[in-house]
Design brief:
globular, eight-stranded mixed β-sheet, about 475 residues, 2 domains, alpha+beta
């Protein structure tokens, strides 16, 4: 490979009989034409539009080029398309398609107020950085950072968007609650070394209903995993009950959330149930001694893993305020015994032993996949600013981007071979599409490759979205 330094053109050899040269002077070409699918979802649901209402803009309207909605659209769409770093926007700000996706009426930036900005429609990294770093107490007299996020409104926003996704109230919903580690590498506010995870990290708390995020709260890691969970559950369930007063609610979590205050609160509410993991101890192990012996004998006969379930009433010596129903799984594997326990207040009508454990409790594993998906593909762990407040805002940006992608999967990909695809697969196969962009007075024309192998699926996705959310006049 030889580089012609004077023109930044690259000469490739050995592919075919003809010379192949490449450069970055193609003009208005985008690598993210599939972002049009995200724009269809945003048109239908207004995730970013509603999110922007959680911000107060103290800037002088006569001296700005980018509204709050446009800034948020640019940032969140870029995250969904795979650009986690603000530095990426120094190049992206010239992308006319991203400008159109962000709601810009002038995708080529020809009418910018300042002459040096003309020809560039979108905001640069400095403007977007000020959006993230605005202090809670900022007002019109603040010098640079004047766009204030109302954290309480954001918390309500996630629950409201979940409720709006249903045409009618369901009979029952399951709220999955979990915490995860978010590794930090600098001297961010709230930095703490977590012994279990063996690194410096934050400890964000998530609550999901299916693939709908209801809570994404950034926390320091110098606390119990369940810290603050009861307050979040009270707030979320209270908001849900305002809309759906008769819905049955099941709270599901691992042993980190097996806390008396959470269980007692659920027991004091109407139609609020829990099914939570329990940490093993010697007392619990003695209770299931006969069941474990039975499982071991079955394994000895069949040489296959054997499970025996037992249900019993149990109360800790000090930490629980009452006896509760515990389901034990006495399992014997080739590597030895494997005892697991859950506690629940579900009535007998839900089933017994194996059904409660295998069908209801174990289904919580899907929520862990949703958290990993958001961290791996939508950069929920990109919490590298100095302040907790701005890192929380970045986590929310990632969460809104996830909502766009999840709705695309839930509605657009329904009935296709990618109906269960993860966000990374959706991005690589359907969003990262090269296209020529032509902007005229009346339209923006996106010309994608005739050889795109998923063209039929792309069109079907559009059909699915518009069947669910018809275009309005």
């Amino acid at each position: 490979m030889h580089t012609e330094c004077n023109s930044q053109r690259v000469l490739f050899q050995g592919f075919c009989a003809k010379k192949i040269t490449a450069d970055f002077r193609g003009g208005s070409i985008t690598s993210d034409a599939g972002g049009l699918l995200l724009a269809e979802i945003e048109r239908a649901r207004g995730f970013i539009k509603q999110f922007s209402r959680c911000f107060t803009d103290h800037r002088d309207p006569g001296r700005i080029d980018h509204s709050v909605g446009e800034l948020l659209s640019q940032r969140i769409m870029a995250i969904a398309l795979g650009y986690e770093d603000l530095n990426d926007h120094d190049r992206l700000r010239s992308d006319p398609l991203l400008a159109a996706l962000s709601g810009k009426q002038d995708p080529l930036g020809r009418d910018r107020r300042c002459g040096r900005d003309r020809g560039v429609a979108l905001a640069g990294k400095s403007t977007l950085n000020r959006l993230e770093l605005t202090a809670a107490e900022a007002d019109p007299s603040s010098r640079y950072k004047k766009i204030v996020c109302d954290e309480k409104r954001v918390e309500q926003y996630f629950v409201q968007m979940f409720l709006d996704s249903y045409d009618k109230a369901p009979e029952e919903i399951v709220l999955d609650i979990d915490a995860t580690d978010d590794i930090i590498h600098g001297n961010q506010e709230g930095r703490f070394f977590h012994g279990y995870y063996d690194h410096y990290c934050y400890l964000p708390l998530y609550i999901f209903c299916g693939d709908h995020p209801l809570v994404a709260a950034l926390r320091t890691s110098d606390r119990d995993a369940a810290s603050g969970s009861k307050q979040h559950l009270e707030r979320v369930i209270g908001k849900i009950r305002e809309r759906w007063p008769r819905v049955r609610i099941l709270i599901r979590g691992d042993s980190g959330f097996c806390r008396d205050q959470i269980m007692s609160w659920c027991e004091s509410q109407r139609d609020v149930y829990f099914i939570l993991g329990m940490a093993r101890n010697q007392r619990l192990r003695r209770i299931i001694d006969k069941a474990m012996g039975k499982a071991q004998r079955r394994f000895g006969t069949t040489k296959k893993s054997a499970r025996v379930f037992r249900t019993f009433a149990y109360r800790t010596h000090k930490s629980w305020s009452r006896k509760r129903k515990v389901v034990a799984k006495a399992e014997y594997l080739p590597k030895g015994e494997n005892a697991r326990f859950i506690v629940t207040n579900l009535p007998h009508t839900y089933g017994y032993g194996s059904y409660l454990y295998e069908k209801i409790y174990c289904a919580r594993g899907d929520m862990e996949n949703r958290i990993k998906e958001q961290q791996l593909w939508l950069f929920a762990d990109r919490t590298s600013t100095a302040q907790m407040r701005s890192n929380q805002l970045r986590l929310w940006f990632s969460t809104v981007a996830y909502m766009l992608v999840a709705e695309l999967r839930r509605v657009g990909l329904k009935g296709t071979s990618m109906a269960k695809a993860q966000a990374g697969t959706i991005r690589n196969r359907l969003l990262k599409i090269g296209a020529l962009v032509k902007v005229s007075v009346r339209r923006v024309l996106i010309s994608m490759s005739s050889a795109f192998p998923l063209a039929d699926m792309f069109l079907r996705i559009i059909h699915n979205i518009r069947a669910r959310y018809p275009l309005t006049a």
